[in-house]
Every structure is written in C-alpha cells, then in structure tokens.
From TrEMBL:
Keyword set includes Amino-acid biosynthesis: no
Quaternary structure annotation from Swiss-Prot or TrEMBL: Monomer.
Lineage: Bacteria, Pseudomonadati, Pseudomonadota, Gammaproteobacteria, Pseudomonadales
Keywords: Lipoprotein, Protein transport, Signal, Transport
GO BP terms, alphabetized: protein transport
Annotated signal sequence range: 1-22
Record Gene3D superfamilies: Lipoprotein localisation LolA/LolB/LppX (2.50.20.10)
Keyword Transport set for record: yes
The protein's name: Outer membrane lipoprotein carrier protein LolA
Pfam families in the record: LolA_3
Organism this protein belongs to: Ectopseudomonas mendocina
Length: 200
C-alpha cells in the first residue's frame, strides 16, 4: 500500500510539475517580444491551385520592435518594402512611397507584424488561438473569427522556438503561403542605415 501511495504521489507531483511548466500565450508573447531587433533571411512559397510548382521568393528581413519590418526581396527580383503601423511602403528612386492597399491587405499587414512581434493580445481580437508545445518548440494555431478574415483565411499556423521560424497561411480558396524564417538572430540596436530606412 505504501508503495502504491508513493507511486501515486510521484505521478501526481510529476503532473503538477508539468502543469506548472505549461507554456502559455503570455509566456510566448514575452519570449517573442524580448528582442528589440531580429534579423534573418526568408524563403516564401506561394502554392497556387492553378500552378504545379510554388512561386518562390527569397530575401532578408529586419524586424524592429519599436518601428516595424523591413522586407528586402532579393529573388526573383530586387525590391525593398517597409511594413509598419501606417501601412506598406516601397523603396523607389524618390525614396519610400506608400502602396495603396485594400482593407483586407492592410489587416493582413497588421496581422503579420503582430505575429512576428508576439503580440497575442492583438491576435486575440480577430482569432481563436490554440498553443501547443514548449518554449523551445511550439505551434500556434489561429482560427479567424472576424467575417473579413474568414473570407480570406481558413487557418494560420505559426511555429518556432526562441523566435518565429515558420508561418503557413491557409486561404479559403485553397491556395496557401509558407514562409520560412531562417538564420534568425536577435539584437538590441539598428544600424544607421536601418534606422534611416525606418524613419525616412
């Protein structure tokens, strides 16, 4: 009987410890929100039902907690974009020019920034969130609640470790986009050129 009680107590304590260590949305937000700057490279694959092979683009990015995102496309063509709370701007010979956006696109941009920054409070406004895994290996499933987003997305699946590593956008029409963020490195400051790009 003592052996049984000891085993039962051991199982209970193990379960309690696992519950105590359970990784939740607040912890994920804190983890992703720690770095002031994140740099890395990306591969984006757009899977269209009408095409046998995905459309692939590559480049680098700079995510600044206080400013937004520099999305520097290198292939198949070179084009620099800046995404922030004001919208999307494209680099031209005359400087940064804002791109006209539909309301759905603008909402996607806000979503993208919220995902990368780990702003779960922003995501909760429009999605039902389901988090599984641990701090080193987690997956966050987003199911849209708003009518506008339901028209565009069936689901969004985000996964990563210390930083976001993969984002999959599953569209209602059957197309999907897979974004892999590679060689991610956290930092605390922007270069002079990056600072200028965000503030110009």
């Amino acid at each position: 009987m003592k052996r049984f009680l000891g085993a039962a107590l051991g199982l209970f304590l193990t379960a309690a410890a696992q519950l105590a260590l359970a990784f939740d949305l607040d912890q994920l937000s804190e983890q992703l929100g720690k770095p002031k700057v994140v740099r890395g490279s990306f591969i984006q694959e757009k899977h269209l039902r009408a095409l046998p092979q995905p459309l692939t683009s590559r480049g680098t990015f700079v995510l600044a907690k206080d400013y937004g995102l520099l999305w520097l496309l290198e292939r198949p063509l070179q084009q620099d974009y800046r995404i922030d709370d004001q919208g999307i701007a494209r680099r031209t010979e005359q400087g940064w020019q804002f791109v006209a956006q539909q309301s759905a696109t603008a909402q996607q941009n806000r979503l993208f920034l919220a995902v990368l920054k780990g702003d779960s409070s922003g995501l909760r406004q429009d999605f039902d969130l389901s988090l599984s895994g641990s701090a080193d290996n987690w997956q966050l499933d987003l199911t849209p609640r708003s009518v506008l987003l339901k028209q565009v997305f069936k689901a969004i699946v985000i996964s990563g470790g210390a930083l976001v590593q993969r984002i999959e956008l599953q569209e209602t029409q059957g197309d999907s986009t897979v974004l892999r963020l590679q060689d991610n490195q956290a930092g605390q400051s922007l270069s002079d050129a990056e600072q200028h790009d965000f503030q110009s």
